[in-house]
């Protein structure tokens, strides 16, 4: 492998391969990267980063910072130490800090700010979450983009789905929606109803493979019976979809290879698991699993079929409603909880009663602002790592490109701590080799071994290899007041990294002027933002991007009913003039 090759570290579906060329980053020509990167990596060196450690506002040396960190940990009872790590860098070696903190007897986190509700719904039906890899979509005829915004969050999907027939289902007329053969501008939070109606329509019109269903989903008749209780026309009217659109969908997909591409947008609700479960039920009835060019592509488990070499057993608290106040020392790595966790007011107040907040990251933000000890990390070009993706099966070496005086790598920081606390620890190369052992060479790419290229070819991963259909279906017509809050990803930022958004977007027909300051309020709290008009939105929805300062004042820290996930779009929002 050439020394100048590495991979993008960011929490992103694409996991691009990168060539480092005298200070410039270029997307590799081969494979899924197609020779281009997104704007975050094209401008990577322009974003100012934290250059030196500091303690309570004073700049200190790295040696002093490590010594302070050791002192804070020594002075804290083990059960009052919390390790809070998020996904600022997706390298597998980032988990090395879990090894230290778990071995020490500290508390780690579980639950998810991202895809957990959707995953729970998938596991309920299929028994596991094995993803249709995006390369498989080159064989599809029709792609249904259901709550994913590929021009922003997964642009390397675009060359693969170019020239395919497209159906887009999204409350916002996204760029991909403008290119679609059929676009359904669905009412937010209504996707499971649409999935049920589409499934009912398949049954009514005998558009299913009886032999396949008898073998792998034999309870389909019971499911159909339940769907019979759902009134087609009133439900369509409620969700903002016409019968003609449903018929057009079937005209387009009949006898075709169909891929459904979903994202996190559909599951940021209390019942988020029900949505992915209903979409999977539709995919099962249409016979999309285990067939070439067909399937459902969500966020797979990037660590599927890979064992961790690190100690990971520990007491855990939720990442969604973390009780920071129960801890004396909180070590925050690759995360900005003061912006990205739900219910910012709760996060702020519980964090304020801890004694030591340590922030270990690349950029200044709300969390580095309140930290007692700030330790800059090395960026991905300055350290060695290896990564996998949640949308394809490649494993990618992240080779160190140059030495730098700035920051410390996760490995070196943990090496110092393990040494100080006499915890077993191996050479960096040994850990990387451990991960490499879960790969195989396939042409010129390294792939994770033991993953099915076409998942569920021989049935599902449930006990009887059959799909479990949803039970107790109901259409809960909400009559909550206020706007639906859409809080999805911005092209300018990666959550709160890079260039951050500062507006609320809403339809111009409302009584608010462009650039006018408005107060948004929910039952959790409020935030004041400037208005930007966007007529690609429905009139009943407003959009505040992830990473906007104060957006999570509006959201609640309840868990989804299944999957222990944050539910960023559950609360309704009122708007008033300031
Ligand atoms: N540029 C950029 N790229 C990113 C990120 C970023 O912050 N910026 N973040 C990364 C991360 S952490 C993740 S998890 C992925 C997520 O990437 P995506 O899965 O694409 O997630 P979102 O952008 O949150 O939402 C996708 C779409 O869902 C739609 N949506 C919202 N609510 C609903 C609904 O009720 N029903 C339907 N059908 N659609 C709905 C939104 O309008 C949006 O178009 O992106 C990654 N890539
Ligand atoms: N309102 C709303 N809130 C959301 C979302 C939403 O769509 N809307 N999305 C949710 C989702 S899907 C996610 S995944 C979460 C993401 O939440 P976070 O993971 O907290 O996201 P970021 O804001 O990207 O913060 C990542 C941090 O990692 C640090 N970092 C980057 N590289 C490295 C490194 O190599 N080493 C170390 N030590 N640090 C590094 C950077 O300094 C940055 O501050 O946010 C969630 N919050
Ligand atoms: S598209 Fe995603 S993986 Fe590719 S360079 Fe951008 S952030 Fe990195
Ligand atoms: Mo995410």
UniProtKB/TrEMBL annotation:
UniProt keyword Metal-binding, yes or no: yes
Keyword match Iron: yes
Record's keyword terms, sorted: Iron, Iron-sulfur, Metal-binding
InterPro entries in the record: Asp_de-COase-like_dom_sf, Mopterin_OxRdtase, Prok_Mopterin_Oxidored
Domain Molybdopterin oxidoreductase: from-to ranges: 128-399
Any GO MF annotation of the entry: iron-sulfur cluster binding
PANTHER family: OXIDOREDUCTASE YYAE-RELATED (PTHR43742:SF6), TRIMETHYLAMINE-N-OXIDE REDUCTASE (PTHR43742)
Protein name as it appears in the record: Molybdopterin-dependent oxidoreductase
Species of provenance: Sulfurimonas aquatica
Taxonomic lineage: Bacteria, Pseudomonadati, Campylobacterota, Epsilonproteobacteria, Campylobacterales
